[in-house]
From TrEMBL:
InterPro entries: L-lactate/malate_DH, Lactate/malate_DH_C, Lactate/malate_DH_N, Lactate_DH/Glyco_Ohase_4_C, Malate_DH_AS, Malate_DH_type1, NAD(P)-bd_dom_sf. Belongs to the LDH/MDH superfamily. MDH type 1 family. It is an enzyme of class 1 (oxidoreductase). GO terms for molecular function: L-malate dehydrogenase (NAD+) activity. Signal peptide: none annotated. Its EC number is 1.1.1.37. It catalyses: (S)-malate + NAD(+) = oxaloacetate + NADH + H(+). It comes from the Eukaryota. Homodimer. One of its GO terms (cellular component) is chloroplast. This is Malate dehydrogenase. Keywords: Glyoxylate bypass, NAD, Oxidoreductase, Peroxisome, Transit peptide, Tricarboxylic acid cycle. One of its GO terms (biological process) is tricarboxylic acid cycle.
Length: 338
């Protein structure tokens, strides 16, 4: 399988299946911010995805080189590059899925919210163009702070009269990927066999791993729970500090984004039982957006799954998460409304 998915009986794409779903029958995918630290390896991974027939790479710098390089890969997707605002329309027309890793990354000592001033404007501009040129596309938003950029995108789409909450997803897959890895380390399991739901949002205490719901069922001591929760919540900062000024997670993020995009595409082509966590327009808490497990289908998010039973530790974590998350959501909304 291209990506191994939890509980997915049809994960084994046969060679014949790959051919049948690639080429002219595949999906058209655009990456906005394709020349960046995430964008480049993500472009490589999407070029390898048999469900992608056309891959558009857009950035404000360096797309000709990245596109030429990627285009030499002997995989099915046709790659085209687009450079600068004047080519944004052509980059977007006809796209089924738009993945957005455009924007500045953190340096040591910064919070994701410190990126708001620059990235909010970038996300607004790109979403205004999506509303105009591919209003039916599914959007995977990676740019930080995700807790605010997703509400910004929703407000832009509402203003343009094209908002469909089913088609907008903030990508929190990296939190799940990290949680699976760290839990596997503690439990002595293969990370591919582990699935940890991570809910809430994508920054510090808003990242809430539900360790009581880990599959396969596992129990952790209080010390392990504290260690795992802290490591998952601060995984991004761990990378930012290790890179010491050279940016934040790019390779593990590209992997996570490609895994999430693959889940979206498989849902879009009608595969059943595709469930992943994402930060979405939601009614499962009193907040207007929340990350939780969602079922992906032909039209995007087909169902938002309930949080399930939380233990006392997680209930406390949820209250903390909601407080910070509410303020970040409000900041995003008022950036567009004011
Ligand atoms: P980067 O600086 O390496 O790349 C960003 C790219 O965006 C650059 O190539 C830049 O030219 C491009 N860009 C800037 N303005 C643009 C615009 N208006 N239109 C199109 N492209 C534009 O940064 P990176 O490491 O790739 O990170 C990108 C973003 O992703 C950051 O905001 C980072 O915080 C975020 N991120 C999110 C997650 C997550 O889990 N959701 C994980 C890692 C990083
Ligand atoms: C991450 O979780 O790695 C990203 O959100 C980047 C960051 O700034 O931590």
């Amino acid at each position: 399988p291209y990506f191994q998915m939890e509980g997915d009986a049809s994960a084994n794409l046969s060679r014949a299946n790959c051919r049948a779903t690639g080429g002219a029958h595949g999906f058209k995918v655009a990456i906005l911010g394709a020349a960046g630290g995430i964008g480049q390896p993500l472009a490589l991974l999407m070029k390898m995805n048999p469900l992608v027939s056309v891959l558009h790479l857009y950035d404000v710098v360096n797309t000709p080189g990245v596109t030429t390089d990627i285009s030499h890969m002997d995989t099915g997707a046709v790659v085209r590059g687009f450079l600068g605002q004047t080519q944004l329309e052509d980059a977007l027309v006809g796209m089924d899925l738009v993945i957005i890793p455009a924007g500045v990354p953190r340096k040591p000592g910064m919070t994701r919210d410190d990126l708001f001033n620059i990235n909010a404007g970038i996300v607004r501009t790109l979403c205004e163009a999506i509303a105009k040129f591919c209003p039916k596309a599914i959007v995977n938003l990676i740019s930080n702070p995700v807790n605010s950029t997703v509400p910004i995108a929703a407000e832009v789409f509402k203003r343009a009269g094209i908002y469909d909450p089913k088609r907008l997803m903030g990508v929190t897959m990296l939190d799940v990927v990290r949680a699976n890895t760290f839990v596997a380390e503690v439990s002595g399991l293969d990370p591919r066999d582990v699935n940890v739901p991570v809910v809430g949002g994508h920054a510090g205490v808003t990242i809430l791993p539900l360790l009581s719901q880990v599959k396969p069922a596992s129990s952790f001591t209080q010390k392990e729970t504290d260690y795992l929760t802290d490591r998952i919540q601060n995984g991004g900062t761990e990378v930012v500090e290790a890179k010491a000024g050279a940016g934040s997670a790019t390779l593990s993020m590209a992997y996570a984004a490609a895994k999430f995009a693959d889940a979206c595409l498989r849902g879009m082509r009608g595969e059943a039982g595709i469930i992943q966590c994402a930060f979405v327009d939601s009614q499962i808490t009193e907040l207007p957006f929340f990350a939780s497990k969602v079922r992906l289908g032909r039209g995007g998010i087909e169902e938002i799954l309930p949080l399930g039973p939380l233990n006392e530790y997680e209930r406390k974590g949820l209250e903390k998460a909601k407080k910070e998350l509410g303020a970040s959501i409000e900041k995003g909304i008022s950036f567009i409304r004011k």
